[in-house]
Amino acid sequence: MNWINSVFRPKISSFLNKREVPENLWIKCPETGEMVFHRDLEANQFVVPNSGVHMRIPVNRRLELLFDEGGYETIATPSVVADPLKFRDERRYSDRLKDARAKTGRDDAVVVTRGRIEALETVVAVQDFNFMGGSLGMAAGEALITGLDAAREAELPFVLFAASGGARMQEGILSLMQLPRTTAAVMALKEAGLPYIVVLTNPTTGGVTASYAMLGDIHIAEPGALIGFAGPRVIAQTIREKLPEGFQTAEYLLEHGMIDMVVHRHEMRATLARLLRLLTHQPDPASLPVPLPEEEIVIEAPVESPADAAEVPADKTTA
């Protein structure tokens, strides 16, 4: 075999049959620059193993990790007018919606579900940041109100995982109207004496923090989450001062009394279950006394001794 067959042809074949490598095979840690294999990141609940940075986690995966055995039902939400203002900037708003729906496979930014967290039935809403930055529009507002009303009617607690860049500018004043509407629904839930817990994830900003995201009975945040109304760069340019180290992070807000706790994602399910039991006055299954196994009662027949047998008169026979 000549050099053309042994060298040249294999190189051409390897070039033409080159294996495609997925773009997300490796994920770069935003803090340390460490490259993490995607499967390892997913197995660790999308937390970078060495640095502990909490990456954005898909909505479906978050819900599977939260509910018992990963099972839950999705609550249907009402549909709204897709493009009420016929808005257009660089692109049509209707085209942006089509792209977001194709990318995420959902109608809008908020998903409302119902399931059990350590046997405690709960209504849970999650904002999907991948859907136009989790922005609050009419559809998201209707979804939140539907979830809050469903929890109130069923007398169940409500848990919100917030992630948003703020109000959706393409809907103008109609978007801002969702702030008082969702606030009224939260107040109705509280008047019914039902718990409302908010989990602030990265990022939670804008009009969402100016309304329902900061009205919880208890506020939890994931480590390192950016939480605030305006971004730190906008604030620094406005006041013309250097901001403190870690400004608007979850740890900074905890230190200054704006939130109640910072909870690692691995401990989120257990923490929420403990808080829900506390707020609904449900006992901790671990604290309940373990019933003792029932002992089998065996009744033994009396043993007849030889002395007793001698005292028994013999049967009389008649001639």
Could you describe the 3D structure shown?
By secondary structure, the protein is an alpha/beta fold. The protein has 2 domains: 20-55, no CATH class; 57-285, Alpha-Beta Complex (2-enoyl-CoA Hydratase, Chain A, domain 1), CATH 3.90.226. It is 34% helix and 16% strand. It is built from 11 helices and 10 strands. It has helices spanning 3-16, 38-43, 59-66, 93-104, 138-154, 173-176, 178-191, 232-239, 250-255, 268-279, 306-311, and strands at residues 26-28, 35-37, 72-74, 110-117, 120-127, 158-164, 196-205, 218-221, 227-228, 261-262. Strands 3, 4, 5, 6, 7, 8, 9 and 10 form an 8-stranded mixed sheet that branches. A two-stranded antiparallel ribbon has the order 1-2. A hairpin with a 2-residue loop joins strand 4 and strand 5. Helix 5 (138-154) packs parallel to helix 7 (178-191).
